[in-house]
Design a protein that fits this description.
The strands form 5 sheets. The chain has a 6-stranded mixed β-sheet, sandwiched between helices. Helix 6 crosses helix 8. The radius of gyration is 24 Å and the shape is elongated. The chain is built from 11 helices and 16 strands. About 35% of the residues lie in helices and about 20% in strands. It is of the alpha/beta class and about 400 residues long.
């Protein structure tokens, strides 16, 4: 059967039912539900004829890994997605665990981030197997845990030797081809001034006034060492928490005094080729300039890296890579247009497990998955047409990378 014929033989009802069953598993991080979903995925892959295993992850957790061996002579392709989800928030109008399907959407917590992507690559491979297609290259399906803890599941898979020539990370990009995303850094800044009663305000060093000047500078800054204008697109600083008052205990009961202490908490995003150390140095230079404008002000900068959580590093792949072209060609066949490709925001500001395959395993890959528009919000949902098109695009990418065995 020709590729053009295969993509018109996607079993719509099966694909939606499979995704709904994934949504119905309450797979919060490090819970019995997460473990149960991993077991379910391993069982489904085994039933499909894959070599399936439950792979140990620290913390009494495990990934579900499946491999379809090829006959030889083709490139191998790995798909990657996580099973853990964000918690349900207030404001839902549908049951977040039901996997509700209407004419346009499928709903549920984690359906966008990222069970629709997980289900799409399972269904793509199942479609090929059911059609009797044999492949030269291996296909590896990875369903990992702990992405929300910095990617501990994917790091465990890499440490245990899971590799392929290329990978597709199925995080939600609304089917766009993301070829670069930022690394992340969390930081704290403490500004210490010199208090006076408001009657002698002119003698004070006002920490709040200094913070008010500093915050928009950080929120608009980029960082040194960017390789290109494309790399600068994923540079961003942001202050998300501000607390100013009197003393390090931040006493608030004496507002007639000038505030002498402010604590800011923020985050930065930086591109491949830039480093945490470089970002911190740029922030420090900004603080030095601030202190020069506010004589007597002291500024301290702290890296808030969580010691038991891996750092989400930046990711990059050449738009000319074979895996990017394979996904581009799949989009072209399915939708008849040019696929949006490159540094696409907002997904380029998110962290993904793609960075671990790129940074720690030296693999070429791409981030491309269904969902995104309705991600991490009440009534989280994915458009059915996008989900099914993603199945088709993944199917075509498998054929291009792994190569079918000629009948």
């Amino acid at each position: 059967m020709k590729p053009e014929d295969l993509i018109h033989h996607i079993d719509r009802e099966y694909c939606l039912s499979f995704l709904a069953k994934m949504v119905q598993h309450k797979s919060y991080s490090a819970t019995d539900g997460e473990r149960e979903l991993a077991r379910y995925m391993a069982a489904q892959m085994s039933e499909l004829g894959l070599e399936a295993e439950l792979q140990k992850v620290p913390g009494d957790r495990f990934n579900a890994i499946g491999r379809l061996p090829g006959s030889g002579g083709g490139h191998s392709l790995l798909f990657n997605g996580h099973l853990d989800t964000n918690p349900v928030t207030e404001g839902w109008t549908v049951d977040p665990w039901a996997g509700k399907i209407d004419e346009q959407f499928i709903y549920g917590i984690g359906v966008s981030n990222m069970k629709a992507g997980d289900a799409a690559y399972f269904c793509a491979l199942k479609t090929l197997i059911d059609a009797g297609v044999k492949l030269k290259g291996d296909v590896i399906l990875t369903y990992v845990v702990g992405e929300l803890q910095g990617g501990i599941g994917t790091l465990a898979a890499i440490e245990q030797g899971v590799r392929a020539d290329y990978f597709i990370n199925a995080e939600p990009t609304d089917l766009q081809a993301l070829t670069m995303h930022a690394g992340s850094l969390m930081f704290t800044i403490e500004l210490t001034g010199d208090t006076r009663h408001l009657s002698k305000r002119e003698e004070a060093v006002d920490a709040i006034a200094a913070a008010v000047e500093l915050i928009p500078q950080i929120n608009s800054m980029t960082f040194s060492g960017a390789r290109s204008e494309e790399h600068l697109k994923v540079n961003r600083g942001h202050i998300g928490t501000v607390h100013g008052a009197l003393g390090r205990e931040l006493e608030e009961w004496r507002p007639p005094q000038v505030a002498d202490f402010v604590r800011l908490k923020g985050s930065a995003r930086f591109a491949p080729g830039q480093t945490v150390q470089g970002v911190l140095a740029d922030l420090q230079a900004l603080l030095d300039q601030l202190c020069a404008r506010y004589p007597g002000l002291k500024a301290e900068l702290f890296d808030d890296g969580v010691r038991d959580k891996p750092t989400m590093l930046p990711f990059e792949v050449s738009p000319e890579s074979a895996i990017v072209k394979a996904v581009n060609h799949g989009w072209q066949r399915v939708r008849g247009t040019q696929q949006p490709t490159g540094v696409i925001t907002p997904p380029a500001f998110f962290g993904t497990d793609a960075a671990h395959f790129y940074q720690h395993a030296g693999m070429e890959g791409i981030v491309c998955g269904p969902g995104g528009k309705y991600n991490t919000m009440p009534d989280e949902r994915v458009e059915i047409s996008d989900f099914l098109d993603m199945v088709r695009i993944y199917l075509l990418a498998i054929l291009e990378i792994c190569q079918p065995v000629e009948a």
